[in-house]
User: What shape does this take?
Amino acid sequence: QQQVKQSPQSLIVQKGGISIINCAYENTAFDYFPWYQQFPGKGPALLIAIRPDVSEKKEGRFTISFNKSAKQFSLHIMDSQPGDSATYFCAASAGGRGGADGLTFGKGTHLIIQP
Amino acid sequence: DADVTQTPRNRITKTGKRIMLECSQTKGHDRMYWYRQDPGLGLRLIYYSFDVKDINKGEISDGYSVSRQAQAKFSLSLESAIPNQTALYFCATSQGSKNIQYFGAGTRLSVL
Assistant: This one.
């Protein structure tokens, strides 16, 4: 049973455009929603994260939008650049013991930014 | 992240062999995790440890075991490797109640 559903699987965006990746979750106990970025041959690295007490978080060109009632969250990359080409994973975790139980990941989105 | 080191980086083994993947960290974090990545499936949690005496099963622990030898070391063992355990394995760390997890560069394992 997949608890975090991510779409699309792959995405091609022109340089300067907006990249949008969506995720939906089922477990209402989730209270932490990070996005990870992974380049080939590397481990995932935290990009940006949000908690359900806010509806949006922005860091530079990256924004998370969060809809608690719909149990959905999305990543928006503004002014997308070729260097943003990577695989992006949404994830979620529940509070557990002190908050750092393992993450439940979506299946990933392979993003290509065309020059 | 060089602070989380996985060895070996690549390994080819045969069905039925015992194999150990190792992870060490210099971040001083108390929590460590093992994930498996398969194409199109994302990352799935195998085991996690809150400290040397606290080991927990994740989503896909069958066929795997772990050992937390010290706060800085967390190893993953496949007692009798099978081909469907061919995957990319990642170790990660975090500190206390902070959810930020830091990943190593991964170990690519092939079971023939």
